[in-house]
């Protein structure tokens, strides 16, 4: 999918995430006060409300929690794809991320819940930011 929509930056909560993607890093946050893992990127801890967050780099490995296959899309950036997956990935660091599984022949048959995956960053035909997607390992 080389034409996915790009983030609208500057945007204070997600800019570090997208700059990480540009550098080939999957970034997430942890709270320095209560040690909670925070994802998606934001200004405060979702557990205790603290503004004292640290940015960390994920190993990018995890498993498929669940998924769906989109067979028809009217969005112009996705119209030519055919069937593609939308999946929740449980990352080893303890957060869940919505993404897509790539590198399978048939997303209706080749993706399994619990399947191990690893992040990769898919360069787009236009725009500065690659999109984090996951490939089976």
Q: Could you describe the 3D structure shown?
A:
This protein has 137 residues and is mainly beta. The chain has one helix at residues 15-22; strands spanning 27-31, 37-38, 53-57, 61-70, 84-91, 96-99, 116-122, 131-136. Strands 6-5-4-7-8 form a five-stranded antiparallel β-sheet, with no helix packed on it. A hairpin with an 8-residue loop joins β7 and β8 (131-136). It is globular and about 45 Å long.
Topology of helices and strands:
Blueprint: H1 15-22, E1 27-31, E2 37-38, E3 53-57, E4 61-70, E5 84-91, E6 96-99, E7 116-122, E8 131-136
Antiparallel strand pairs: 1-2, 1-3, 4-5, 4-7, 5-6, 7-8
Short description:
6% of the residues lie in helices and 34% in strands. With 137 residues, it is mostly beta strands.
Question: What keyword list fits this structure?
Answer:
mainly beta; 5-stranded antiparallel β-sheet; 3-stranded antiparallel β-sheet; globular; 1 helix; about 140 residues; single chain; 8 strands
SS strand fraction: 25-35%
Strand-and-helix sequence, N→C? HEEEEEEEE
Helix tally equals 1
- Contiguous low-pLDDT stretches (5 residues minimum) are none
β-strand number: 8
* Principal-axis shape: globular
Record the strand order, biggest sheet: 6-5-4-7-8
Rg over CA atoms, rounded to whole Å, is 16 Å
* End-to-end CA span: 20 Å
Question: Mean pLDDT across all residues, rounded?
Answer: 93
Bin the helical content: under 10%
Which structural class best describes the helix and strand composition?
mainly beta
What does the main sheet amount to?
A: 5 strands, antiparallel
């Amino acid at each position: 999918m080389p034409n996915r929509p790009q983030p609208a930056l500057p945007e204070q909560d997600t800019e570090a995430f997208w700059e990480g993607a540009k550098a080939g890093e999957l970034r997430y946050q942890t709270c320095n006060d209560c040690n909670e893992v925070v994802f998606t990127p934001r200004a405060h801890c979702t557990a205790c409300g603290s503004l004292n967050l640290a940015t960390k780099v994920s190993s990018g490995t995890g498993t498929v929690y669940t998924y769906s296959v989109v067979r028809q899309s009217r969005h112009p950036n996705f119209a030519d794809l055919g069937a593609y997956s939308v999946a929740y990935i449980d990352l080893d660091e303890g957060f869940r991320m919505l993404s897509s599984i790539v590198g399978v022949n048939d997303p209706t048959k080749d993706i399994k819940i619990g399947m191990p995956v690893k992040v990769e960053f898919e360069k787009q035909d236009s725009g500065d930011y690659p999109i984090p997607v996951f490939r089976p390992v």
